[in-house]
Design a protein that fits this description.
Blueprint (H helix, E strand, L loop, with lengths): L1 H31 L6 H18 L4 H29 L5 H21 L4 E2 L9 E3 L2 E3 L1 H23 L1 H11 L1 H6 L4 H23 L4 E2 L3 H16 L4 H21 L7 H13 L14
Antiparallel strand pairs: 1-4, 2-3
Pfam family, one: BPD_transp_2
Keywords: Amino-acid transport, Cell membrane, Membrane, Transmembrane, Transmembrane helix, Transport
Family: Belongs to the binding-protein-dependent transport system permease family. LivHM subfamily.
Amino acid sequence: MTILIQLVYSGIALGMIYAVIAFGYQLTFATSGTLNFGQGEALMLGALVGLTLVDTLGLNYWLMIPIVCLFGLVQGAFVERIGVKPALRIKSEFGWIMSTIALGIIFKNVAENLWGRDDLKFPSPLPEAPINLLGANVLPMELLVVVGALLMMAAVEFFNRRSIYGKAVVATANDRDAAGLMGINTSLVITFSYALSSMAAAFAGVLVAPLTLTGATMGAVLGLKAFAVAIIGGLSSGMGVLVGGVILGVAETTTAFYISTGYKDVPGLVLLLLVLAVKPAGLFGKTAIKKV
């Protein structure tokens, strides 16, 4: 029983990382109907920039986080302006898909040339000795991942509900054409949503980096699994990505332990196929009716 609880703890921490990245997918999809398929690379860049600031420049981990978040904002805005905006302007249905994938590959190649191909160790800001919680051991960094992920998503939700700029994002998400008629610069809102999306991914990068190895390839798998979480939970539901992330994270850790690490990716893919077959909008998503 102790082992199972410990696996659940690790799964929840992993699932929260998936949820933060999937939350970024939600932000862009709500305002523009597009997704950044280079989201995993935004996480990777955030982790590597954070490692440089901490390990090379000697910056404190906690002071490094806002700088990485600022970097994520700039990187996300760059992706939208270079890769997504031109496709939306000409109403290309698939241009933004190829553009974001291409930019993701470029970012990966740049990272390999700047930081090398070898995985690097990210120093943990917290003690590495486990804490006994309800009869099982949990790493302090895993607790930080859960708390940090929840705080990030709560902060974005608070911003959207309480600030005038956040309400412009919500209005654009609800009806882009109507928001434009009311004087909202929807193009700028879409850019901002991409910036927030990449900021969330970069933040997730510095959270997960101390628990794993940091390198140019670390974002690809995390980005794909987060996309699966977004589909499973529903691209229109914040609660959905939380639940979907936890389900996938726990399924992976328990499968890896009780069956084999070679099968740890199978439960998530099976769940994805089942959700697409039974409830295409996701477990918590709402099916939209399009008027033509």
